[in-house]
Amino acid sequence: MALEIERKYLVHPEHLPPLENGREFIQGYLCETPEIRFRITDTQTIVTIKQILGPGERHEYEFVPRKGIDADELEHLKTIALWPPLRKIRYKVPFEGQLWEIDIYQDENAGLMTCETELPSRDHPFTLPPWAGEEITSDGRYANIRLTQSPLSKR
Questions:
Q1: CATH of the domain at 52
Q2: What pLDDT sits at residue 143?
């Protein structure tokens, strides 16, 4: 199981560079503790198991099912998910040696934009890009699992 260390921020959209090659994700949760989620893109399905260690730190195990998910299986996954899955468009943008993922949420979380970067260690230095606003790494309201449980439009 890999150790995932990440930092997450709200986005100042007026400072974003042009975004290209976004990928749509459909993401749902099958279990809360440990967190078990499925993520489906146009090209693959990934199942992830996460054990939360602390703010921004998790043990993470990911695997890709041997065969893809067809439309009927996707609909079934949506029905067994704990809450309705969320949709977001993800863009990958390099900045000063760090890869940043910018997520633009859809549907009931429309209007929310976040960015995050993964770090090799907790104390690894990095430079914030101009589009990074308030840090929300420790704010559980912005965890994807919470956004499925309690979408922004219902708060």
A1: 2.40.320.10
A2: 96
